[in-house]
Amino acid sequence: MTPLRQRMIVAMQMHGFSPCTHESYLSAVRDLAKYTKRSPDTLTQVDLQRYFKHLVVERHLAPASVHLSYHGIRFLYREVLAWPEVNLEIALPKRPQRIPALLTRAEVAAILNACSDDRHRAMLSVCYGCGLRVSEVLALRVSDIDSERKLLRIEQGKGAKDRLVPISPTLLETLRAYWRLYRPPEWLFTGRDGAPLCSATLQRAYTLAKRRAGVTKVGGIHGLRHAYATHQLAAGLQVERLQRLMGHRSIHTTLRYVHWLPSAREGEGELDLIAKLEVAHG
Question: What molecular functions are annotated in GO for this chain (predicted)?
Fold first, then answer.
């Protein structure tokens, strides 16, 4: 490991970045060094501009990929190499603002019912019933469930912030049944080796259940989190509260769901989304 790479890892640890961010940022810097055939600390603004032109014009990378590379490289120069300023003067491609294919209650119910594995069904139910990210579901411990107050503790979610999310009575019963069946000692969802499952396992389980359910809308497991947000807004949950439940840093991220759901109304919402699925599926 080069000293520069080690310094960058330490800087990311100090900022509390997630393992996924570590990997993405290091990959961005590694690709830069591979293209220029020079150490990043010897490059100039002109070299960086040439590299990003290569990503956009020659490699035809998607806007999201270019932006991710930009943020990783910008972090290196600002936080590790302490450049006085990083003004790359790069016209980054705009990210297309597409409305995702939102799942209906009936489609969510069909997907959960098509999941034959009890453990995977419980995990997908938590994804939808609490609006969690996949990484947050995989990081859950048994001790994170507060049965008495009907709360789920999300420890160090995205942005390194803890939050509490209500667990509906229906979902709580699902988790109790799961615990009686598997008796996990520490991590709530584990593989045979007792370690937390990897995200690819849950992604595959979702894709298979979706196919069995005959749901053809485009999108991965994150669609369950989108469904949670839109169904809560449709039931009248206030945007500010949804922001807290979703763990969004900016209210603007939450407001996207309002734009996607013009029929949303202000109110208390419906936190027991799992119970509503039975009605929708029936």
Answer: DNA binding
